[in-house]
Automatic annotation (TrEMBL):
Family: Belongs to the diaminopimelate epimerase family.
Protein name stated in the entry: Diaminopimelate epimerase
Gene name per UniProt: dapF
Record-listed substrate binding positions: 13, 65, 75-76, 174, 191-192, 202-203
Major location (coarse): cytoplasm
Species annotation: Ancylomarina longa
Subunit structure: Homodimer.
Metabolic or biological pathway: Amino-acid biosynthesis; L-lysine biosynthesis via DAP pathway; DL-2,6-diaminopimelate from LL-2,6-diaminopimelate: step 1/1
InterPro entries attached to this UniProt entry: DAP_epimerase_DapF
Active site: 74, 201
Function: Catalyzes the stereoinversion of LL-2,6-diaminopimelate (L,L-DAP) to meso-diaminopimelate (meso-DAP), a precursor of L-lysine and an essential component of the bacterial peptidoglycan.
Amino acid sequence: MQLNFFKYQGTGNDFILIDNRDFIIDSKDISLIEKICDRRFGVGGDGLMLLENEENFDFRMRYFNSNGKEASMCGNGGRCIVAFAYHLGIITDSTSFIAVDGEHKAKILNNKKELLISLQMQNISKLEIGEDYFYLNTGSPHFVKFIPNHNNFDTYSEGRKIRNNDRFKKEGTNVNFVSFQDDSIMVSTFERGVEDETYSCGTGVVAAAISASFKTKNQSFKIITKGGNLKVNFEKIDSQNIKEIWLTGPAKYVFTGKFNL
């Protein structure tokens, strides 16, 4: 049996997308999903997403890390599955869909150069502010640390240390390193589940932008990642409550193919 798949990427964060409205793939088959995500023996991707039907919504987003396990919310993945639904003809210029962390809204900003997706993230109601770090959940948990600059900085080694320390070893956390660069912030990410540095992380840049607002008072940030540029804007009510969080950036179709099951 052959499985039709589609490959998308959002600022270098790459995903395998499958139209699973007819349940052609068993979401409990961890080994199959891990195999499809394998970069040597499968299609290869930071994660896999299933687009499924959901009553009262345009679709349901099911996201799986490359280890085959269903994961928490992925911001770049959310933008890519919205682009996927747009290309399938399920939606037009806006959408409301359901993910593991609840309802999300998105807008399709189609220009001549590329397809931009603006994705609304969940409100934040609790932040942990330490002496040299911030810890918050933006759909996925993120430990944010500011560094002087990213020149020769080893995101993999430093991120792996934090992700596997006594506090986070069991459940894991994503780790973001942030530096200021002119009127933008640069963000690098060690991502749990992938267990490696990724080119970009949507929930991570949201966490980084919110953390940076405590240092600059800004509520809108241009963000530079290894995979490209993103924008985050939000309304900061107080130090523990953030709402109207929008993540905007490109979501690009790469190719389609068939995978032998």
